Each structure stands twice: as C-alpha cells, then as structure tokens.
C-alpha cells in the first residue's frame, strides 16, 4: 500500500470488506444458482435475457462417447457447468482442415479425441468449483460486436454487472487477450475495464489480476489508445 493513505485506502473495496459487507448477504439458494452455469442460464432465459444456444449437455461418459461430434460446425464452446476462473473452457472458432478437427481461438487444433478427453476430465470434477463430479455444456460461441473488433482479435468480450439489492452498482468490460486464450477472464490474463454506470464509458483498466494499464491496442487505428473514454454500444 505504499503511497496510499488511510483515507484513500477506505475508497477501495478489498476482498475482506467485500466478503464481510456483501457476500454474506447472498442467500444459499442464490449462490447455488450462481455457481451453476446451467441453472443461471435457465433463470436468465425465463426472465427474457438472451443466452447462448445450448447444443448438447453431457452428464455421463457414455453420452460423450456416443455423441456424433462431427455434427458440430465451428463456433462452439465446451465448458464445465460448475467451473471457476475460466478453467476448463475450450473455445472453438471454426472447423479444421480435416474431419474431426477444429481450430481454437488461439489457433491451436483440437480433435474429437481431445474434446472427448476434455469432457471426461470435466465430468470427473477436474475443473469443478467444489471438487465434485460435474456436467458439460456445449454452447454456440457468441460472435463479437463490430465495435469490439477494434479491441481484440482473441475472443468475445463480455460485460460483468454487479447488482446489489436489485440495483446495478458496478460494471466491467472484460476483453480477451492472446494470453487469456480467447477467454474474457482476468485470472487467465484478460483485460478488465471499469465502466461508468450512468454513461457506459470506460474509466480505467487492469490486466490479469491487478496490473493497471493506461492504453490498449486499437486494431482499426493500428495504434494504442487510452483505456478511458471508450463508449460501450447500446448502453
């Protein structure tokens, strides 16, 4: 905390303060829903919020082995239902050169065998938040909004909104990077950009787990631009 006085420090929402003031107010039922991508997806869909189309859900190894993987075109995502920190997510952008091959966002090739083995690991609980056997979701990959093509070529950005007592209080634009492997997850190396709730304009940014950055590369302008002042579309 070098260079930060007590008055400034109190302006930060630390992990301990967050846990003491906010997390304990979440109901057990609410946490169970939030910890499951499948349950969250159903709740959002019921409320009329757009969600990615589910292509297949696996609960057993038998289901993984019997599924005809060649039915999948490009643009799909394999993820654990109860994963954490972006671990266990495989993002596919298109078919590969040969049958039974696909290309991930980072350009790496995955095969039917690779995907089956990965699903087996998910089912065994390797990426589970609770270290328990899990299920697998295979969903369509959401395409990037044209505006965000200026900021990344690595994956689809998303917006995380924190809601407290039914009131949206904080928001962050998460931008995938080459380091994050196309995932909009800070723990994996993505960029998080604070968003002003009233205007939808970015204010500051960090990369990964806390490295503050001042500029981000604009692929359209082919130069670095300030991270603050970027207007989020349709805010």
From TrEMBL:
One of its GO terms (biological process) is SOS response. This is Alpha-L-glutamate ligase-related protein. One of its GO terms (molecular function) is ribosomal S6-glutamic acid ligase activity. The keyword Cell membrane does not apply. It comes from Candidatus Shapirobacteria bacterium GW2011_GWE2_38_30. SUPFAM superfamilies: Glutathione synthetase ATP-binding domain-like (SSF56059). PANTHER family: BETA-CITRYLGLUTAMATE SYNTHASE B-RELATED, RIBOSOMAL PROTEIN S6 MODIFICATION PROTEIN. Keywords: ATP-binding, Ligase, Nucleotide-binding. Residues 41-93 form the ATP-grasp domain. One of its GO terms (cellular component) is cytoplasm. It holds the Pfam family ATPgrasp_ST. Coiled coil: none annotated.
């Amino acid at each position: 905390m070098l260079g930060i006085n007590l008055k400034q420090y109190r302006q930060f929402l630390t992990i301990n303060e967050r846990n003491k003031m906010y997390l304990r107010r979440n109901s057990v039922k609410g946490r169970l829903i939030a910890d499951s991508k499948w349950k969250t997806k159903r709740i959002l869909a019921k409320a009329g919020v757009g969600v990615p189309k589910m292509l297949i859900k696996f609960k057993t190894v038998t289901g993984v082995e019997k599924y005809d993987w060649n039915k999948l075109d490009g643009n799909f995502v394999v993820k654990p239902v109860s994963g954490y920190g972006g671990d266990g997510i495989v993002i596919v952008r298109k078919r590969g050169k040969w049958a039974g091959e696909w290309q991930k966002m980072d350009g790496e090739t995955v095969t039917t065998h690779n995907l089956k083995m990965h699903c087996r690991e998910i089912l065994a609980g390797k990426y589970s938040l609770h270290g328990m056997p899990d299920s697998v979701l295979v969903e369509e990959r959401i395409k990037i909004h044209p505006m965000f093509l200026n900021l990344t070529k690595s994956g689809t950005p998303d917006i995380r909104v924190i809601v407290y007592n039914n009131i949206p209080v904080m928001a962050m634009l998460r931008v995938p990077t080459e380091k994050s492997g196309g995932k909009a997850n800070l723990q994996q190396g993505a960029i998080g950009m604070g968003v002003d709730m009233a205007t939808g304009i970015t204010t500051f940014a960090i990369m990964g787990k806390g490295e503050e950055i001042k500029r981000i590369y604009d692929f359209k302008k082919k130069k670095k631009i300030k991270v603050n002042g970027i207007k989020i579309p349709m805010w």
